[in-house]
Amino acid sequence: MSTSTQQDRSTSQGETQSASLVPVLWQLQISHYVEKVRWALDYKRIPHIRRSLPPGLHIQKARELTGDTSTVPVLTIDGHSTGDSTPIIALIEERWPQPPLYPEDPAQRRRALELEEFFDEELGPHIRRAFYHELLPHPELLVPLFTHGDPLAARTLLEQFPMLRAGIEQRFQINAATASASRAKVIAAMDRLEREISGIGYLVGESFTVADLAAAALFYPVARPPEFPYPTVADEDLPDSWRAFLDPLAPRPGSRWVSEIYRRHRGQSAELTTGDTNKAPRPDAANGHSTGNGEPVSNSQAAFPDLAASRDRLPAGTTATREHDPA
Ligand SMILES: N[C@@H](CCC(=O)N[C@@H](CS)C(=O)NCC(=O)O)C(=O)O
Predict the structure, then answer these.
(1) Residue 221 in contact with residue 172, Cβ under 8 Å?
(2) Among the atoms of ligand 1, which is closest to the Cα of residue 86?
(3) How many alpha carbons lie under 13 Å from residue 78 in its C-beta half-sphere?
(4) CATH code matching the domain that covers 3-99+268-320, chosen among 3.40.50.300, 3.20.20.140, 3.40.30.10, 3.20.20.60
(5) 174 lines ligand 1 (CB under 6 A)
(6) pTM (whole model) above 0.90
(7) Which class would CATH give 106-225+237-252?
(8) 121-161, pLDDT tens digit by residue?
């Protein structure tokens, strides 16, 4: 989506004010658009807080934060919330230019942004529709991806699942015919990806840019790179119909490229969580869900060079952790 859709607004949310100097990423953990922004934050080693929202309610929360964007990701910085992954990455790039995601050369930059836009618009919605069409009939597979090991949240979401499923199907116009058309769009996007990969393995120029990041993040539900750092549906649990779509794509150069880009550039999480030894799930300030918590990073100063310098600006008791080990 173009940067003209950027939505900034001051927020009066207590939880964002209390940590106003630390960026807060509002997310659905499984969202590939969220993965795009998470990767940018991690790549630039920007210590940040993540708040997972319950599916469905995330729409209202995103609107409340931004004014009129009803999707996640939303990023709150210094009390201002921005919606939509493209302007969020533009903002991140402006505030934290190193390491760069935008090429310096203006022509290359234009091409990188054009490719980002292509994958955002021509791949993202179609992969989501194709995925949900196969997975929504299997709440037992989807619910854990939204509730992060919280049994109460999982029970509640299972009970409400028929309503959620109807809402998602309506919102994203999911039916057999649209899903089939979207599968064709995913294949077309992979064809284009394969045409764009250069001899040295990047989409633009000679290094990793926002074009590679967007393509790889948005393709993750299909390419299923081993380095995707969050839980996904296990191979053996995939519905046969979804596997029938994925299997022929797996050996393609495009899928192998996604895995290679993840392997080379995904790196570690720069998420901050409260408590340096706390391994219990952390209550989500927005809704009482938990976001999950991971291993404290023992060499946090080495892994997060900016952290020591910015520690006096962090909320009390905050430390850097990996959110999850690779699934
Ligand atoms: N163009 C947006 C798309 C984000 C998006 O579609 N997010 C989904 C989750 S995958 C969402 O929140 N959808 C809610 C809705 O469309 O109502 C971006 O790049 O951030």
Answers:
(1) no
(2) 19
(3) 4
(4) 3.40.30.10
(5) no
(6) no
(7) mainly alpha
(8) 999 999 999 999 999 999 999 999 999 999 999 999 999 99
